[in-house]
Specification:
By secondary structure, this protein is α/β, with parallel strands linked by helices. β3 and β4 (about 115-120) form a beta hairpin. The protein is globular and about 70 Å long. The model is unreliable at about 1-25 (pLDDT under 50). The strands form four sheets. A five-stranded parallel β-sheet has the order 2-5-8-1-9. The protein folds into two domains: about 1-20 and about 240-350, Orthogonal Bundle (Helicase, Ruva Protein, domain 3), CATH 1.10.8; about 40-95 and about 125-235, P-loop containing nucleotide triphosphate hydrolases (Rossmann fold), CATH 3.40.50. The protein has 14 helices and eleven strands. The chain has helices at about 10, 15-40, 50-60, 75-85, 100-105, 140-150, 185-190, 205-215, 225-235, 245-255, 275-295, 300-310, 320-325, 330-340, and strands spanning about 65-70, 90-95, 105-110, 115-120, 130, 155, 160, 170-175, 195, 270-275, 315-320.
Length: about 350
């Protein structure tokens, strides 16, 4: 494919060329700021590059991240360290079967001295919220979390309270144990922008982990403020996405619903329900944030392609035949992505 280029009208104008160069250099400088955040976090966290990048993409794109991995892989430490690097408030909720919604969002407490009810806000009022082992919570608790994830507010009594911005929920699932767990409702799973699979570290990484964790850990400094992060989110909103890239995202998602339309008749029996339009939207939003991290003011098809598995894997509902034949979401996504070619992008930005 060809690298995006500006239109002749833009290149003929010195002012337009100067503005484009200034915009590109500004974006590069701001993306380097996020690289500094990553560098600061990696002073404590060894490996887990994909998890850290996806968390930052979630922050920039205002999305939430679902993480699946066995215990002991530094999932909690990763998000806690990231919150220190951005100067945000961090809260952790350990989900258990006896949890009630008030444990998350807060409740109204009667004050005997004043004879009035006072509102005590819960731990969801933080910039980065870790919902640890979210699938251990009952339905009422999951529905309470659903509102705050989607609406970014909670309702206590007749009062509505907004959560602070920026706001990101990182939820973890333990794939080993199933006793005492509640499957997440599809409506809630769909609210997560990305699902990241965390694997074991390599031998070299594990050696560094052991060496680092048996000594005093470095103190993590604050690289940016939450106000600066809000400004970066606004910059991400301005990243240009060519219509052909949007069509590519829609084609990928559409193929999960009707695989026969792209020549994948063999997948039809394995998919009960495909991804919703929210997948197409999140694919573009996350791809835009990914391109910003790479120092560009425009998105490339590769940005969407790289993020697509994380957007799609938790949105596919596979059939019993898929389970019987050992077909996973990863297998389905790989075939779909191979069947749909990357588009060619001819422009860097919209016509002026």
């Amino acid at each position: 494919m060809t690298e995006p280029s500006t239109s002749p009208d833009q290149s003929d104008s010195p002012d337009a060329s100067s503005a484009s160069s200034s915009s590109a250099s500004s974006s590069s400088a701001e993306s380097k700021l996020m690289e500094q955040v990553m560098f600061e976090v990696k002073r404590v966290i060894v490996g887990q590059d994909q998890l850290l990048e996806r968390l930052i993409i979630g922050l920039l794109a205002r999305g939430h991240v679902l993480v699946e991995g066995v215990p002991g892989l530094a999932k909690t430490m990763a998000i806690k360290t990231l919150s220190n690097a951005i100067g945000g408030e961090f809260q952790r909720i350990q989900f258990t079967p006896d949890l009630v919604p008030a444990d998350l969002i807060g409740t109204r407490i009667y004050n005997q001295q004043t004879g009035e009810f006072n509102t005590s806000l819960g731990p969801v009022f933080a910039n980065l919220l870790l919902a640890d082992e979210i699938n251990r919570a009952p339905a009422k608790v999951q529905s309470a979390l659903l509102e705050v994830m989607q609406e970014r507010q909670v309702t206590i009594g007749r009062e509505t309270h907004d959560v602070p911005e920026p706001f990101l929920v990182m939820a973890t699932q333990n794939p080993i144990e199933s006793e005492g767990t509640y499957p997440l409702p599809e409506a809630q799973v769909d609210r997560f922008m990305l699902k990241v699979l965390v694997g074991y570290p390599s031998s070299t990484e594990e050696f560094v982990i052991v060496d680092r964790m048996t000594q005093a850990l470095d103190t993590i400094g604050t690289v940016i403020t939450t106000e600066q992060l809000a400004g970066l989110q606004a910059e991400v909103d301005e990243v240009y996405v060519d219509p052909s890239i949007k069509e590519y995202a829609v084609s990928l998602v559409g193929a999960t619903r009707e695989p026969a339309a792209v020549g994948l008749d063999n997948l039809t029996k394995y998919i009960s329900y495909g991804a919703s339009p929210r997948a197409s939207i999140n694919m573009i939003l996350a791809g835009r944030a990914s391109s910003f991290l790479r120092g560009r003011t425009y998105a490339l098809p590769e940005d969407v392609r790289d993020i697509a598995p994380d957007v799609l894997r938790h949105r596919l509902v596979l059939s019993y035949e898929a389970l019987a034949d050992g077909v996973t979401s990863e297998d389905v996504i790989d075939e779909i992505m191979q069947a749909i070619p990357l588009p060619e992008v001819a422009m860097q930005g919209p016509a002026q």
